[in-house]
# Entry
Amino acid sequence: MKLEKEVIVIGAGAAGMMCAIEAGKRGRSVMLLDHTFKLAEKIRISGGGRCNFTNLSTRPENFLSHNPHFCRSALARFTPQNFVALVEKHGIGYHEKKLGQLFCDGSSQQIIDLLWHECDAAGVEWQMPCRVHRTSRIDASAGGFVLETDRGTVTTRSLVIATGGLSIPQVGASPFGYEIAQQFGIPVTPLRPALVPLIFAPEQFSRFSELSGVTVDAAVSCNAACFRENLLLTHRGLSGPAILQISSYWQPGTPIYINLLSNIDAAAWLQDHRHSTALLPNLLTQYLPRRFAQAWCEVIVESQPARPINQYSETELKQIAAQLHKWEITPSGTAGYKKAEVTLGGVDTRELSSKTMEAKKVPGLYFIGEVLDVTGHLGGFNFQWAWASGYAAGQYV
# Structure
């Protein structure tokens, strides 16, 4: 059966549903397609099941892109307060966990239900599951697209790609959006996992792998970026908020630097205790977990049994202080897309209008959300980009 719709959105995730809602509100006939059986699985599993749906501190500086100014326009037109108003309209309780991060009091399903109801109210037609087998332009000059799907053929004037990135393939992630971009001559910037745990060579990390589950408050830096939050030791390496954040800036083969005592001057503190008979690991437990302090001293300071502080020379104490403030360690890789929260890189935004999300050289073709080369920090920023980019496109499709 051949159908005609003014707008087709491929991808019923956060960005796709927001775009469909806004287009529907404008009286456009909208069809929302998705190849999965379950709606918005990435929303459902986010935030430990409570969906960190936005961040009150959202700024353009919270996003990485080869075209860093692209996100400004959309973020300015749909703010965290705009989405909070929608949450409150639906009577959803929420709270700020930390650093501007807003979570549902209940579950992520509340956000999915909100979007579903808004889509229905806007007259959006659903097609799930529905796979798109072929996409082509009707007429290069007049515009329009024809989609061949496993439910039939449909034509549209405006085609929105909201298919996300490669992260979390187990809930349906695919390269479809990048393939569409390349089909129409739109470049895709290099892709890699982001907001992802880092792994280390076994011989480098064997002593620490015994401490899986231990957390340490630390400042982690790499390539001029620095984040102060918890890091979590795992069987294979490091995770936790500080590591997930820095993973977006890490490049293979380069080290990361960990400041284990960012609140104090370690050199001055060790000098104040230079006459102490306490063993170094025991002294470090004032600021670090005991098991971690023991392992760190064994690996970094010396292999032989720990000595009392008063048996270290001033030079040795300065070297230990330097290591505490700048522990250098080089990851062997990341845990991959399966464990990554987002994909770094994507459809090159230099080929799109920052006002409308429309491809400059392919009228009627729009890209929104994670499929774009716009990647947020951890803490609700990627959802805010989904809302903002979906809203922006929804005003013009």
